[in-house]
Amino acid sequence: MAIDLLNRLPVQPWMQADGARRVMRALNAGAPDSARFVGGCVRNALLGQPVADIDIATKWEPDEVTRRLLKANVAVHPTGIEHGTVTAVANNQPYEITTLRRDVSTDGRHATVAFTTDWTEDAKRRDFHVNALYCDLMGDLIDPTGRGISDLREQKIAFIGDADTRLKEDYLRILRFFRFNAWYGSGQLDVEGLSACLRHRAGLETISVERIWSELKKILAARDPRVVLEAMSQTGVLQFVLSEAIGLDLFNALVGLELEEHLAPDPYLRLLSLYPKDIDVISADVKRLKMSNYEKKRLLATASDTTDFSKEFSAKAFRRAIYKTGKDVFKARARLAWAVRGREANHRYWRVLTQSAEKYERPVFPISGEHIIAVGVPEGKPVGEVLQRAEQWWIDEDFPSDVALIARHMRLIAEDVKLREGAGSIDD
After folding, report:
1. How far apart are the C-alpha atoms of 26 and 71, rounded to whole Å?
2. pTM: predicted TM-score of the whole model, two decimal places
3. Residue 365 has what DSSP assignment?
4. Quick check: 228 and 178 in contact, CB under 8 A?
5. Domains plus CATH for the chain?
6. Could you count the other beta carbons within 10 Å of the beta carbon of residue 110?
7. pLDDT grade for 378, boundaries at 50, 70 and 90
């Protein structure tokens, strides 16, 4: 952990980028300390982790922020003006800038806010102490809650103030609590926060399924979320989000395998490990969670695959199976099957299998519908039948590359189909 004991963040490349300097200098011109970096960018930089989004908090209200940025020739867009947020774009890098604020009223999903110039007041409305850290262009930190730095050092995720109050303001914070523990926690979840999540889990009913899936996906993508998933299960939050989840045995085995074998976490495969082997159940939840088309396709293709991994593959059987299944689905199903074996697995075999799958390049069947029509097969279903039968022969023969041999067998199949269709011999 890269936290300086003097509460100073070493200057980061993203802080010294020309775009960041232009934006911050425009906001601080004539009034130093009117704007600071805040939240995730500060937290991740302190932890030595990559920084993606750069957020800035400022004492200026949106109209003044806009005026100052335009004066500095920085593009600005009113992306969340009702909450005091505009987005500046400098050197193709977006900077989300939000006026310091306090909550006036909340309903568990939305908040009515009032602007303030008090850094502490702004910090107190945030969710966790580790997210309420601010720093300037020189890296000087301020920790208004007095616990942000220490909680980062201790890898503790704790709500600012009363946990029940924080959750009532926004029930999505239930899942954020688990996500931040999965990514930044030590494995020991804050008891007060955990108890509050248990009490308020029904509040997730008010949150859109898209936001729920977004948080759940991030939890599943953490390096080792086993303790967090166990806590979610014990509090009933997991069952509330995934009502058909059947337990954590396969999930725990899968995560353990990924860690032992240094495999990249696969959140989609981890999700499947929580479900029964029932494609209808999985399809229903995929639809309910409103996943993207890519996510739907990947999950359902993996869930519906019937490749038999109960016996070790010969080289020929491997080539046949992966060709028919597809590289990505085969790799996913192989990893699940490996996890199911657990300690009884022949790890050397599974390593070779997965490495071979990773290197696999799918051969291209050299026959097309045009070739089949060219030998006199009537267009329509007959062409499809010849194509399907010829490809199956090619697969069964272990993908021969002899074009003449393939063409000869295609003509034999075409002859059979054409005669059956009453179209005469292909030599007529």
Report:
1. 8
2. 0.88
3. P
4. yes
5. 1-154 (3.30.460.10), 305-359 (no CATH), 369-420 (no CATH)
6. 12
7. confident
